[in-house]
Design goal:
5 helices; two-stranded antiparallel sheet; 122 residues; elongated; mainly alpha
């Protein structure tokens, strides 16, 4: 089994869950603080709009997107993620102007569900 070692005291654990519990109870710091200080991966911005994302866990780090809207816009703006797309559309989507228009279209499109209100999406 993969061992996870505490960066503070050196104790080894079998899972990130065990390490997380140890960090909170023994060292009295949050897993997010530990993640930033000892894992040194501070990717806390949305892959699409660059706003701050939430911390998920010690094993997963930060979310890739700030919300569902950005994840859907980013996913559907990539022409390779659409199944039934003509060759002409694939060629057109390589044009940055067309790509920008498509992104705006998907932002305006209403998507069912409850979303966090983000200042950048109106």
């Amino acid at each position: 089994m993969d061992k996870h070692q505490c960066g503070i005291c050196g104790l080894k654990y079998k899972s990130t869950r065990s390490l997380s519990i140890h960090i909170k109870s023994s060292h009295k710091i949050s897993t997010e603080e530990y993640y930033i200080k000892y894992i040194n991966i501070n990717k806390s911005e949305c892959s699409y709009c660059k706003s701050k994302t939430r911390f998920v866990s010690l094993g997963d780090g930060y979310s890739k997107y700030c919300g569902i809207k950005c994840s859907k816009v980013h996913y559907y703006s990539d022409v390779n993620n659409r199944i039934f797309v003509s060759e002409k559309t694939k060629i057109a989507m390589k044009n940055p102007i067309v790509k920008e228009k498509m992104s705006k279209f998907f932002l305006k499109k209403k998507i069912k569900g409850n979303f966090r209100k983000n200042e950048h999406i109106q």
